[in-house]
Amino acid sequence: MVIAGRVNRVAFYCRMNHRDHDYTQFLDDVKKRLERAYGKQKWELKIYFEEASGADPDRKEFNRLKQEISQDQIDVVVSVRAAMIARDWGQFMEFMEICEKAQVEVLCLDEVEDAGRIFQRIQKFITAYFGGSEEVCG
């Protein structure tokens, strides 16, 4: 959870499956996205970068990030887009549930494909479809 007036710990998770990409191209955008979401804050940035398939459950940095979130070492996660977190829906939901339990917000540079909004829509659908609600998902 981001708290004003302290150094907040941000994790930038960047997964790519091509060797010719460089995560540093996104760092300025990460800072801008954090400022849009939280205003001026002090950040301790940790990079979690790996070249791997988004469907691979054994991604080293992804699993390290989940563990550090669970151990209360991260306040907010930033990624480029939701699909960069995971291309497997089960892995995506597990990650987002870990973040939700730890009160860690997930922001994406691509606000159209924002992980937090996607997770909320999926939760709303699950409640409406499986919970017996007559409310239509929006």
Task: Give the helix/strand layout.
Blueprint: E1 7-16, H1 27-38, E2 42-51, H2 60-70, E3 76-79, H3 82-85, H4 89-101, E4 105-108, H5 115-130
Parallel strand pairs: 1-2, 1-3, 3-4
Would you mind describing this structure in some detail?
The protein has 138 residues and is of the alpha/beta class. The chain has one domain: Resolvase, N-terminal catalytic domain (Rossmann fold, 3-Layer(aba) Sandwich). 41% of the residues lie in helices and 20% in strands. It is built from five helices and four strands, in the order βαβαβααβα. Strands 2-1-3-4 form a four-stranded parallel β-sheet, sandwiched between helices. Helix 1 links the parallel strand 1 and strand 2. It is globular. The chain starts with 6 loop residues before the first strand and ends in an 8-residue tail after the last helix.
By DSSP, the count of extended strands is 4
Helix content: 40-55%
Strand content: 15-25%
Shape: globular
What's this model, at a glance?
Pfam families: Resolvase. The protein is α/β, with parallel strands linked by helices and 138 residues long. Helices cover 41% and strands 20% of the residues.
